[in-house]
Amino acid sequence: MLAGIWAEPRPARPPVRVWRDWALSSTLVAISLVEVLLRDDRAWAPLLVGVSVVVAACLLWRRTRPLAAVTVAFGAVLAFDIARIAVIDATGLLGIAGLLVLPYALLRWGAGREAALGLGIILIWLPVTLIAEPTSPAEKVAGYGFFLFSAALGAAVRYRTRSYDRDIEQVRLHQRNELARELHDTVGHRVLAIAVQAQAGRALSAADPKRALATLVTIEEEASRTLKEMRALVGVLRDGTDADLAPRRGVVDVERLARPGGEVLGVRVQVSGDVEAVEPAVGTALYLIAAEAVTNATRHASGATHVTVDVTASRSQVHLRVRDDGEASTTSSPLAGYGLRGMTERASLLGGTLRAGPDPDGGWSVDASLPRTARAS
């Protein structure tokens, strides 16, 4: 633990110097000047003001050079206190009260080794100044308490800020995962559908030009919808605004995945039960899982001739099964990583389960079970 603290780097992006820093330093110097003018004994006035100016100047670099600021400021005051003990007879100035800010800055903006070395310098100075300025035991305890409290406050603010930044990064990572999943599940699926329709159109162009033309119309419509969704996602990324990323489709839309066999893989869809009463979030997830499973079958099911999609709604659950009749040895290889991961995440986030793998009867199957009412897992 100590080695980790010693090797800890400085926090990133310390605040720049602003007018308030100059105002604080100027105020401390002004207080020292006024205090010197009000004293009867001004023999050591230049030295006193010089020490106050050094301390005030160090405050300007307390964020960007915390250890250097502590070393110079406390070093100057330490030399002054040693001189007070051995040579001169002078009391301190209120202007050096700015020293209280430096332990906070040291623990807030310094690296681990800088904080350790700086605290060592402060702890060396404290007993010396308490000797130079005779105080009661209670005042000595209070002196240590003030500086240690300043350092502890800086450490607390530092680690609270780090925790906040970590939470923000987690939120950003979650948003990126959401966008990646939506891009893969919606736009990616539709682009593949366009490719499949184009293959069908090419196969039909010679034998049945009318059907080939109808396929081109379908490709145009699908491309327009895909472009619209792409623009929406790009707008979210560019503007940083919130958006409803969930496609407006549900369980009843699973039937749209059906298409006849022939030159391309045929898809049969069967929906049973009271699917209209399924919660919209669950319906959208089931549709996207089914669409992704059909897409993977189209891509990876070697030798498959058809895919069956069965959706059954019971009183508390909705079951989805997508199965192809391809070669088990081929379809048992891992599916596209992002697709399988996205399907599993969608089911898990709603409190459901998903299993994908070789089917005992041959081919590949995806089985998902989701509650009719979504609940966060």
Automatic annotation (TrEMBL):
Q: Where are the transmembrane segments?
A: 44-61, 68-87, 93-109, 116-135, 141-159
**A Gene Ontology molecular function term of the record:** ATP binding
Q: Name one GO cellular component term.
A: membrane
Q: Which residues form the Signal transduction histidine kinase subgroup 3 dimerisation and phosphoacceptor domain?
A: 176-240
Q: Which residues belong to any copy of the Histidine kinase/HSP90-like ATPase domain?
A: 284-373
Query: Sorted alphabetically, which Gene3D superfamilies does this protein's record hold?
Result: 1.20.5.1930, Histidine kinase-like ATPase, C-terminal domain
Write out the catalysed reaction: ATP + protein L-histidine = ADP + protein N-phospho-L-histidine
Report the SUPFAM superfamilies cross-referenced here. Answer: ATPase domain of HSP90 chaperone/DNA topoisomerase II/histidine kinase
Question: Which top class of enzyme applies to this chain?
Answer: transferase
Q: What is this protein called?
A: histidine kinase
Q: Source species, please?
A: Micromonospora halophytica
